[in-house]
Every structure is written in structure tokens, then in C-alpha cells.
Amino acid sequence: MNTKLIGIILIVIGAIMLVWTGFTYTKKEKVLDAGPVQISADKQKTVNWPPYLGGILIVGGIVVVATAKKSN
Question: Which residues cross the membrane (predicted)?
């Protein structure tokens, strides 16, 4: 894969991570499992990441693009 392309992908992912600092999803979890009777509940789970991680990816992507050799 082209090194410059990897750097651009890192920059884009970093920018997205700065805008959206996490996401929420719903997961079914068993509350009671007693033989043929099963009760489940929907639980919301949240995934968060620190905003500085997006900044690190942007800086890393810029370094990769800047140091990539020109391909003819």
C-alpha cells in the first residue's frame, strides 16, 4: 500500500475522532435464565476515546505524508 495513502487515512480517522468522541450501542443481556424461562434486557453500552487520540493520529498522518518518498 502506498505510504502517502496510509498517512491520509490516518489524518481522516484522526479528524473523525476529534468530531465524534465516542458512540453508543445496544446489547441484549440475560437477566434470568431458569430452565425454559429466559428474561433478557436491552443494555446500552458506550465506547469513548479521548479527543487527544484524534490529534495524535492527525499529527502522525502529517508526519507520514511529509516523509513519504515521491513515487513516479
Answer: 5-23, 49-68
